């Protein structure tokens, strides 16, 4: 709201440096609470679950990059380096709150209970994929876990999250939405439209902006001149906080307060997590062409998982032996799931055009017929159903024919 009484006779432009935003930081690199800081309240059970899920995702990412290199997956995106930004934030929310994510936040889905087999079903587009094989790998979604299906068109989830949160407010059931995106997505028009409508309509939505230094190959210095993303929230009248995204305690404490604010004051909130995308943008990217190994190494030293481990060891809540055992278990579980789920069949072909309309319209049926003709022409390129023969695999369901 503009304060019309704030009048001055001094002609002076306001600059970003006049309104600095500080970064909340609680843990030092050795996993100790910073001098003068207070350790936030977090129970042992939650802390260990957060730590385990951060590790699970690190192992999953390493194994899936390997699987993609072996030609077993077509595409993959990692969360490496940003695990604390994602797990630390989602852990502050209720399982009834909706998660709307970009594509690098599968750690939040794991925190909600997604299993190794479910990850594989989606990545491999098999018959058990909840998305019925219609999306590229990593476009997860789960109705049961309140995780909205991902759309890789940047920033579309931002106005959608505002709308979803508005519905939650109307329902009066004290739930909210957590909406993730990268600093690059904040250059989209949808970011501005979404934030403003959320502010004006007082929607209980927490926007978690992962500021990880890059939008593919474009560093933040070439993306914007302003002081990151948090001040943009303030510009829209939204309370904003910036945190060290590699500091699990800072991310979690800020997210707990952000959720309280969102629900109690019915307001959007912004949490900007400062971190670094340690891996490539995706398996289609090669970061050595646009950044130095020294820069990567500098951030590797700030690994959020290592920092949390040191804190847990210091509290006596964890041991090195448990750490080794956990990593081995995750490796076995993930590779086992990959092996078993890649043996499954692809989804039934006519799922491509079912579900959206009760009766698929003419243009979809026409495209479907063209697809069948194409498969008939090149049968060697398509998997037959081993139990029923090639013909049965792509046969259209009766209602479409
Ligand atoms: C509307 C739109 N424009 C461009 C792209 C291509 N694209 C995919 S990811 C990406 C970079 C996004 O960067 P950021 O939001 O910072 O997320 P990060 O990958 O760093 O996690 C771009 C430009 C897209 N998916 N959608
Ligand atoms: Mg980014």
From TrEMBL:
- Its EC number(s): 1.2.4.4
Q: Please provide, alphabetically and separated by semicolons, the GO molecular function terms listed in this UniProt record.
A: branched-chain 2-oxo acid dehydrogenase activity
Q: Which InterPro entries match?
A: Alpha-ketoacid_DH_E1_comp, DH_E1, THDP-binding
Cofactor dependency? thiamine diphosphate
What's an example Gene Ontology biological process for this entry? branched-chain amino acid catabolic process
Keyword match Oxidoreductase? yes
Q: Which Gene3D superfamilies match?
A: 3.40.50.970
Q: Which residues form the Dehydrogenase E1 component domain?
A: 52-345
Q: Which reaction does it catalyse?
A: N(6)-[(R)-lipoyl]-L-lysyl-[protein] + 3-methyl-2-oxobutanoate + H(+) = N(6)-[(R)-S(8)-2-methylpropanoyldihydrolipoyl]-L-lysyl-[protein] + CO2
Domain of life here?
Answer: Bacteria
Keyword entries, A-Z: Oxidoreductase, Thiamine pyrophosphate
Role of this protein: The branched-chain alpha-keto dehydrogenase complex catalyzes the overall conversion of alpha-keto acids to acyl-CoA and CO(2). It contains multiple copies of three enzymatic components: branched-chain alpha-keto acid decarboxylase (E1), lipoamide acyltransferase (E2) and lipoamide dehydrogenase (E3).
Q: Which family does it belong to?
A: Belongs to the BCKDHA family.
Q: What is the name attached to this protein's record?
A: 2-oxoisovalerate dehydrogenase subunit alpha
Q: Which organism is it from?
A: SAR92 clade bacterium
Taxonomic classification: Bacteria, Pseudomonadati, Pseudomonadota, Gammaproteobacteria, Cellvibrionales
């Amino acid at each position: 709201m503009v304060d019309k009484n704030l009048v001055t006779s001094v002609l002076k432009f306001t600059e970003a440096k006049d309104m600095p935003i500080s970064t909340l930081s609680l843990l030092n690199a050795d996993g100790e609470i910073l001098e003068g800081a207070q350790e936030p309240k977090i129970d042992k059970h939650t802390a260990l679950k957060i730590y385990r899920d951060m590790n699970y995702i690190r192992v999953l990412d390493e194994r899936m990059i390997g699987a993609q290199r072996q030609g077993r997956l077509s595409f993959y995106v990692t969360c490496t380096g940003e695990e604390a930004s994602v797990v630390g934030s989602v852990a502050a929310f209720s399982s009834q709150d909706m998660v709307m994510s970009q594509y690098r936040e599968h750690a939040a889905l794991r925190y909600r209970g997604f299993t190794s087999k479910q990850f594989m079903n989606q990545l491999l587009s098999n018959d058990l994929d909840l998305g019925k094989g219609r999306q590229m790998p990593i476009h997860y979604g789960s109705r049961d876990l309140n995780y909205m299906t991902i759309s890789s068109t940047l920033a579309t989830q931002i106005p959608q999250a505002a709308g979803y949160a508005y519905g939650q407010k109307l329902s009066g059931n004290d739930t909210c939405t957590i909406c993730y995106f990268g600093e690059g997505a904040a250059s989209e028009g949808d970011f501005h439209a979404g934030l403003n409508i959320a502010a004006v309509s007082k929607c209980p939505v927490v926007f978690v902006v992962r500021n990880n230094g890059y939008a593919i190959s474009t560093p933040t210095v070439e993306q914007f001149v302003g002081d990151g993303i948090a001040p943009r929230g303030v510009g829209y009248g939204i309370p904003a906080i910036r945190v060290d995204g590699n500091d699990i305690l800072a991310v979690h404490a800020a997210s707990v307060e952000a959720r309280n604010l969102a629900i109690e004051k019915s307001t959007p909130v912004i949490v900007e997590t400062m971190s670094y995308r340690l891996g490539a943008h995706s398996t289609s990217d090669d970061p050595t062409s646009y950044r130095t190994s020294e820069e990567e190494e500098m951030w590797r030293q700030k690994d959020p998982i290592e920092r949390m481990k040191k804190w847990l060891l210091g509290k006596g809540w964890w041991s090195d032996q448990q750490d080794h055992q956990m990593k081995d278990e995750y490796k076995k579980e993930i590779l086992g799931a990959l092996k078993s789920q890649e043996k499954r069949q692809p989804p039934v072909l006519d799922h491509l055009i079912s579900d959206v309309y009760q009766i698929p319209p003419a243009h979809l049926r026409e495209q479907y017929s063209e697809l069948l003709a194409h498969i008939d022409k090149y049968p060697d390129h398509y998997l037959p159903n081993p139990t029923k023969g090639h013909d049965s695999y792509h046969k259209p369901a009766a209602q479409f024919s």
